[in-house]
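Late entry, evening session. Most of the bench is empty. Finally got around to the prediction I had been postponing all week. Sequence below, unchanged from the version circulated by S.P.
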Amino acid sequence: MTCLSMPEFVVLMDKVAEEVGFETVGGLHFPCEEEEFKEILMRCLRMHKMIAKGKRRRRSSSKVWNH
């Protein structure tokens, strides 16, 4: 869900809404080049990994302090 709040993704979804509306049948068409979409997804994946890594660190450090 982190990706959905990324500014790049929000802008892209706004463009989709302008182009096709919110109610469409079939596949979703993104008004950008394939490479641009891939880059947005890669940034999302990197952000997700960083957040997950931070959560693991907080959990492991809290275990140290609780013992």
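Two things to note before I forget:
The chain has a mean pLDDT of 78.
The chain is about 70% helix and 0% strand.
Will write this up properly tomorrow.
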